[in-house]
Specification:
With about 900 residues, the chain is α+β, with helices and mostly antiparallel strands. The chain has eleven helices and 54 strands. It has six domains: about 180 residues, Immunoglobulins (Immunoglobulin-like); about 80 residues, Immunoglobulin-like (Sandwich); about 90 residues, Immunoglobulin-like (Sandwich); about 100 residues, Immunoglobulin-like; about 110 residues, Sandwich (Immunoglobulin-like), CATH 2.60.40; about 200 residues, no CATH class.
């Protein structure tokens, strides 16, 4: 038998005692016989009212849907343990509630014990949203405690320890309570009969949301009185036909929704484990009134410097991103603002070319709500025109007349002005006018380099006006040129030797150093002149195989400098070609005829010598092809960019390999080999020729070229900095020190002015096969303002795996770098770079992905983390590969050895780097 609720103690015990203190005071004052009794009494009545009402009726910042179950029976004939839960907790404020704690209040006279903590941490509930945590408490019977009274008591929840400007006490007393029925101790009753079969369908005891929801994200929540499965739809139907399933097969069932603004109705039916199904649906109706982000912006356009600053404002704190394509999801947007996370968001765009720009922006607030539509910012850059200059002969100019082509960034009117002058003191520094012919973007004129203009630096000046009236003076390419008009000296010690195979070998010495190649002149009559040009050669020795027996040939040689100047003729030399079978050789000296001398034959049979010589001619032809490739790449329109790639080193290395093979062939002539042995040796040389043809570049064609945008976010800085700290084994420093390093490093980025370009080249080999190289060039300056140059001794390049999977795929033009990770991530000392970073990815790369490669200025971490007043240690860079350590760190794949005190690993160059 259940106890009579009337027998329970008064419910005031469940209320805070301070509510009744003014009532006692009121009684005492009512008995006082003083003239002011009535006003005082009225004041106390009013004071009691305004004090008690908020405590009894104000739920404060949190609304509670229900306590489940609504009635609990404990002790005596009832269960010895019960669990109660607070469901559908809702934040009514316009801001997030942080560090929320829910405490179950149980009257002291009930004398129950908590099997679980009486206070449960709920955490953070976003503004106008439901909690994802359902707090629960388990209480047990404690009849042994004196003062335990059977009866009915009220349970409710107090919410404490949360951050809110609302001063009302948050309690569920006026919204959701549960009845706790305490039974009398009695003898153990007879065993209960077997329970009747379960034929009752589940009952929905609480639903959410209700009313108006101020969020684009809504959690549909249904609580049943027993374990069940629930389905729902926007149209009512039988259980099986409802289209959507709520998650959860216990008593709590949820589903995350993103409904549009407006009123929404859902019909819910549930089925328990005994297959009892609700015959009447539970109808959930609510409205969504999602507040927009309220975006606005201003633009600061600087056409002269091709720069735009976007100042974006949001109605609440948020993180914002942008993309160049419409309808891009926030998570897929790659454009990051320089400053974001509050209500003001700033992005500076550099190196913009003239034309229209459109950016699509989306933001995510601190509670995780994301914009589902684009905010569009559009503007047009009308920069002053710039010019690119191309001289007819790209490189050092020698004496002569040269065509100069001017290509402007936009149509010019009227004719632009182009002048040049020499930056030295040997002549008066005057601007020499270049008359131009052309229209629109394309113009040309001529300059004349005089014999006296030797070893000088020339600089062009440009002025052009576009149709908008903007006048520009910037020369983006080809602004300077060099001259070299000197005449080279004639080669000396010119000698000729008739070889046994009928060829003629020439050798000489050149007094000049900067020689590009030599020109061979040949005739069958004396007085050789320029009309007798015969061949080009890159070494100071030459073998002429195209000869006829017993014919006398006359030779002269000239040297050609790297600037293309041809020097004076050598002395003339005459020599007669001799037949191999005669068995003697003759030599020519200074133009004299040959004198026969005896010569011992080599150990290799004569017919085998021919096979060796034939393969040697193939090697010499390959060597000549490499020399031609070097010339072709050196005269390329993008020669300075190609020089940053490994192609030059590959040509030099392969040329050396061919020279070594020719030495090997020459050595074979002195060995007494039979046909079989010689064939074996020659096949090895032929195989090496094939390999060299497959790997030697013949030409490089530009496939694609693009400018690189420099944008570094706080997230980029944090990830790179933490990676560096991990490698240096400094990641155990405190959060305050990490935040200070992040702040310091972010400030350094404002001092970095960087412009970059990317080039995709298709490289064709001697055998016709092809491969791709992707070149990255970045030019930077560090602002001298403040202490930026001293505070940023290092610069890091963080290259994503979408560009290169490891450092083995990258050729760095800048040597002396340190490997942070093979993923890859490297750093240099800033002072070693000379304002330029260049590296080549040895494969085809989508140039758009190179914008994800981040260049970040890095402070001296060790110095930054030293305690104040301590002696300054070695810089971080020097400590990477010097000093002593017992840490035993070995890096990813190659170790800095015992001299790596901070655990850095020193990178080893890829295999193709000499």
């Amino acid at each position: 038998m259940r106890p009579n609720p009337a027998a329970a103690l008064p419910q005031r015990e469940a209320l805070p005692a301070r509510i009744f203190l003014p009532l006692k005071t009121l009684r005492a004052l009512s008995k006082a016989k003083v003239p002011v009794r009535m006003p005082v009494v009225l004041f106390c009545i009013f004071f009691s009212f305004i004090w008690a009402v908020p405590l009894l009726h104000a739920s404060g910042s949190v609304s509670t849907g229900a306590l489940a179950p609504a009635s609990l029976e404990l002790c005596g004939p009832y269960a010895g343990r019960q669990t109660v839960s607070a469901i559908t907790l809702y934040n009514k404020e316009n801001f997030s509630l942080v560090n929320l704690t829910a405490t179950l209040v149980v009257p002291r006279q009930a004398s129950v014990s908590f099997a679980t903590p009486s206070s449960v941490t709920v955490g953070t509930i976003p503004s106008h949203n439901y909690s994802l945590i359902i707090p629960s408490w388990t209480i047990t019977c404690n009849n042994s405690v004196p003062g335990t009274f059977p009866g009915t008591y009220t349970l409710y929840v107090n919410y404490t320890s949360y951050t809110s400007p609302n001063r009302n006490i948050a309690t569920s007393l006026n919204e959701a309570t549960a009845a706790l029925i305490i039974g009398s101790a009695a003898p153990t009753p007879d065993p209960a009969p077997d329970p009747a079969p379960d034929t009752a369908p589940p009952v929905v005891i609480a639903v959410a949301p209700q009313g108006t929801v101020f969020s684009s994200s809504v959690q549909l929540l249904v609580t049943t009185d027993e374990n069940a499965t629930c389905r729902y739809g926007q149209q009512d139907s039988v259980f099986e036909a409802l289209p959507e399933l709520l998650q959860g097969t216990g008593s709590v069932h949820t589903r995350e929704l993103e409904p549009a603004n407006g009123t929404h109705t859902f019909y819910v039916r549930c089925r328990d484990r005994s297959n009892n199904t609700m015959q009447v649906p539970e109808v959930i109706t609510f409205s969504v009134a999602f507040s927009p982000f309220q975006l606005s912006h201003t633009l600061d356009l600087n056409n002269a410097f091709s720069r735009a600053v976007i100042n974006l404002t949001t109605g609440r704190q948020a993180f914002c991103r942008y993309a160049s394509a419409a309808r891009t999801a926030y998570t897929d947007m790659t454009g990051t603002f320089d400053h974001t996370g509050g209500k003001t968001h700033i992005k500076t765009l550099f190196s913009l070319v003239s034309g229209p720009y459109t950016y699509y922006i989306r933001c995510k607030d601190l509670s995780g709500i994301t914009m589902q539509s684009d905010y569009v910012i559009a503007f047009t850059i009308d920069s002053p025109p710039t010019a690119q200059l191309f001289v007819e002969e790209d490189g050092v100019l020698r004496e002569g007349t040269y065509k100069v082509t001017l290509s402007s960034s936009e149509d010019l009117i009227p004719t632009p002005i182009l002048t040049y002058s020499f930056d030295d003191t040997s002549k008066d520094q005057i601007d020499i006018f270049i008359p131009l012919t052309g229209s629109g973007k394309n113009w040309y004129g001529y300059i004349i380099i005089d014999k006296t203009d030797d070893k000088r630096v020339g600089a062009f000046k440009f002025s052009g006006t576009d149709f908008s009236g903007n006048t520009g003076h910037t020369i983006a390419r080809g602004g300077i040129f060099l001259t070299d008009t000197r005449t080279l000296q004639k080669p000396t010690n010119f000698k000729a030797t008739a070889e046994r195979d009928g060829s003629i070998k020439l050798s000489w010495h050149s007094p000049d150093d900067d020689i590009d190649y030599f020109k061979i002149y040949r005739s069958t009559s004396p007085n050789v002149d320029y009309l007798d040009f015969y061949d080009i050669w890159h070494n100071a020795s030459y073998r002429d195989r195209d000869t006829e027996d017993q014919v006398t040939y006359y030779y002269k040689v000239t040297a050609v400098s790297t600037s293309g100047n041809e020097g004076l003729f050598s002395s003339e030399i005459a020599i007669k070609a001799e037949d191999l079978s005669i068995g003697y050789a003759s030599s020519g000296q200074g133009g004299a005829g040959g004198e026969k001398t005896d010569s011992s034959p080599g150990k290799l049979a004569p017919h085998l010598l021919l096979r060796v010589d034939s393969l040697a001619r193939t090697g010499e032809e390959l060597s000549e092809k490499i020399a031609g490739a070097q010339t072709l790449l050196g005269e390329h329109e993008l020669a300075s960019q190609i020089a940053q790639t490994p192609l030059g080193e590959e040509l030099v290395q392969n040329k050396k390999k061919i020279d070594d093979l020719l030495i090997t062939l020459a050595a074979l002539k002195t060995k007494p080999l039979n046909d079989s042995d010689l064939e074996h040796e020659l096949s090895k040389v032929s195989l090496q020729y094939t390999i060299l043809e497959q790997s030697t570049p013949r030409a490089a064609d530009l496939v694609e070229r693009t400018d690189l945008e420099h944008a570094v976010s706080g997230e980029d800085v944090q990830l790179s900095l933490f990676e560096l700290l991990k490698v240096m084994r400094l990641d155990s420093i405190g959060d305050a020190e990490k935040e200070d390093l992040i702040s310091r490093t972010m400030r350094l980025q404002d001092a970095l002015d960087l412009k970059g370009e990317a080039f995709l080249f298709k490289v064709t080999h001697l055998d016709g096969s092809a491969r791709y190289l992707t070149l990255v060039e970045k030019h930077f300056t560090v602002s001298p303002e403040g202490d930026a140059q001293e505070d940023a001794p290092f610069i890091m390049e963080n290259i994503p795996k979408s560009v290169a999977t490891s450092l083995d795929e990258i050729y760095f033009t800048n040597k002396g770098y340190e490997k942070i990770k093979t993923d890859p991530m490297v750093q240099w000392e800033t002072s070693d770079l000379g304002g330029e970073i260049a590296y080549t990815v040895t494969k085809k790369v989508d140039l758009g992905k190179l914008s994800y490669a981040k260049t970040i200025l890095i402070p001296d971490l060790q110095a930054a983390l030293e305690p104040a007043g301590s002696a300054s240690g070695a810089s971080s860079a020097s400590s990477l590969s010097s000093g002593n350590s017992s840490s035993g760190f070995s890096g990813d794949s190659s170790s800095g050895g015992p001299g790596s005190p901070t655990g850095y690993a020193v990178f080893k160059q890829p295999s193709f780097i000499s």
